[in-house]
Specification:
This protein is mainly β and 396 residues long. It has one domain. 7% of the residues lie in helices and 34% in strands. It has 3 helices and 25 strands. The strands form 5 sheets. Strands 1, 2, 3, 5, 6, 7, 8, 9, 10, 17, 19 and 25 form a 12-stranded mixed sheet that branches. A 5-stranded antiparallel sheet has the order 13-12-11-4-18, with no helix packed on it. A 3-stranded mixed sheet has the order 16-24-23, with no helix packed on it. The longest helix has 15 residues.
Amino acid sequence: MAQLRLRGVAVISALALGSAALAVTAGSAGAAAARAAAAAEAAAQSGGSICIGHHPQPAFWYTSGCTGHDEPELDPVSSLAGSAQDLTWTAVLPKDGRVPVSSVGPTFWWGGTVTDPNPQALFGQAFLELQFYPDAIVTNCASDGGFNVTYAPDKFSVCAPVWQVGAKSNAETAAFNAELYDGTTSTPLVMNAGDTIRIHFFVASQNEGWHVQVADLTTGQSGTIVLNSRYGPMLPAFSAQKIGNALGWGLVDDTPNSFVWEIGHTSDFATPAGQYCTPGQASCDSYDISHWLGFTPLQIKSVTFADGSAPSNWAVASDLGGKAEVNQDCSSYGGPYCSYPWYAFNGTSSAFTYGGDYPGTKFDYGQGSQFATTMQCGGPFGTDSTYCDTVLKPTP
């Protein structure tokens, strides 16, 4: 069983890796079986304690063992009142191929900025990450933001940590964490690769925390998480899904809600599990486009708001500068382990994808060049303190 902890960090320097990540070899069924056996063996053991999480401004400190990470995001944009409070995402889960989905990063998530009733919370804000773990079934979602998973190819399960920063302590901690259960049971909601899912964020009342309902439209199963911390309900911090309504202690001038694929870590089932890694390292599959193209991609089919409307625009951002991060660690940009994965619109599936140009790609928006490489937007920490959102053109 791999033990993983998600927590925010400001460390972005390279850390030495131990043994290489789980080997991935295209080709025979024997190679696939060997890959699955190696992953199962890694998953059967307790992984090292690691920290990854929502990337904050560099003024904050974190517990020992935390490492930096990378959060490229996709933002639906709307000026509609209430669009950041009631929104529904529809997506198709990715599927293992010649490489497992889990090879390119430990989790992808849908999240948003919420109010934090903790009187010590910086700006009175916290950040929800509804984290999906590929090739994994959750056995525990810990109060400190940690989680335990067991290896299960082509399965997905979920924890929902909410991250806060102390105004006086300058420390980021988990204000809340909950497991997504199947209905009213105490067993995890387990979804399958290729399933169509619907994620609905909505406010039931001001006396209850934000509701997050996940429905597997393929199996008919569903589960709901309500964001109630020990200090009280956590609710959407903004009304409209506009660029600039951003998390105060974050690094991006973005929309309140977004989709993110965590990259810059080895697989949950590598040895060591979830190790921080950087472009140029042969064990850092996040920055190797051939790995992304080795499985069937996640498809983000749509976002709708309370009145049924769709986004007016879509935008993207990286909190480490996209290609600038690769150029910092690689002698030249491009090629194996030295490319920054990107968002694209697929005309065949009529959906956004992340990773590379999958068959059917219609717009790739300049590939890795779609992300701002320098901080040119402002925020509570001054001018040029955040990466700007890039609006994707043409709008699909």
